[in-house]
Amino acid sequence: MIEVQGLVKTYGSKRAVDGVSFRVNRGEILGFLGPNGAGKSTTMKMITGFLRPDAGTAVVDGHDVTREPLAVKRTIGYLPESAPAYGEMTAEEFLSFIAEARGFRRRPERLAVVNRAIGLTHLESVRTQTIETLSKGYKQRVGFAQALLHDPSVLVLDEPTDGLDPNQKNEVRALIKNMATEKAVILSTHILEEVEAICTRVIIISRGQLVIDETPAQFQARQ
Ligand code: ADP
Ligand code: ADP
């Protein structure tokens, strides 16, 4: 589903990403670990088509990111690190607004995708509340719901449980696990416990290069 081969991104004389290769299959949850500044965001931005690689390729569900960035954006659901803005909108207004921006122009169709995303993320009880009044855990679920609107086959999640309390973390992890059965998921994190709890594989990036690509069990055996 995601096939990354020799990705390179240079800023000035600095190689932020220096020849990164890996793949993620359907049903896999890949944990992407690394210290701050190691190159995680830059790698994820190249996979989602927001940043053009200097060298190498990323193919997502058969679409080359450089040649078909729009097709890739349609395939991917992206959960940004920060919670959704538009705090004065209700959860359903926000989702409807994003759905319209994504090309669901007809109202019945838009309603259908919004309802589906609300159902998947268990937001029914708060759908008419404004986003600013929601707890962090619910805000994060609204973020997930927007990532799921177009029924993507690949999910790219930036620090999905960062800042949540232990209960909310567990809820969001259960959500990710459920969704992963028919999708390929890549999530960046700096929480080791998260990798052990839900990831099927882990890669570690350091100074732009992958230093580990293995199963959580292999990874744990090393600690
Ligand atoms: P991570 O997500 O692992 O924290 P990043 O991918 O954000 O790491 O950054 C990798 C390196 O590239 C860092 O040294 C960062 O300062 C640098 N970098 C990222 N974006 C830019 C940019 N737009 N211009 C210059 N340097 C950048
Ligand atoms: P986001 O969190 O939205 O992914 P980032 O924190 O990676 O954004 O970066 C915010 C903006 O600053 C981006 O345009 C990015 O390219 C740029 N940037 C990130 N790191 C650096 C850096 N070290 N030097 C210059 N620009 C940077």
pLDDT average, as an integer?
92
Beta fraction: 25-35%
Bound molecules: adenosine-5'-diphosphate
Biggest sheet overview? 6 strands, mixed
Number of helices: 8
Radius of gyration: 17 Å
Helices and strands in order:
Elements: E1 2-11, E2 14-24, E3 29-33, H1 40-47, E4 55-60, E5 63-64, H2 69-75, E6 76-79, H3 91-101, H4 107-120, H5 136-148, E7 154-158, H6 166-180, E8 184-188, H7 192-198, E9 201-206, E10 209-214, H8 216-222
What can be said about this structure in brief?
Belongs to the ABC transporter superfamily. This is ATP-binding cassette domain-containing protein. With 223 residues, the protein is an alpha/beta fold.
Task: Give a description of the structure.
With 223 residues, the chain is an alpha/beta fold. Helices cover 37% and strands 27% of the residues. The protein is built from eight helices and ten strands. The protein has a six-stranded mixed β-sheet, sandwiched between helices. A four-stranded antiparallel β-sheet has the order 2-1-4-5, covered by helices on one side. Helix 3 crosses helix 4, helix 4 crosses helix 5 and helix 5 packs parallel to helix 6. The model has no long low-confidence stretch (mean pLDDT 92). One adenosine-5'-diphosphate binds next to helix 1.
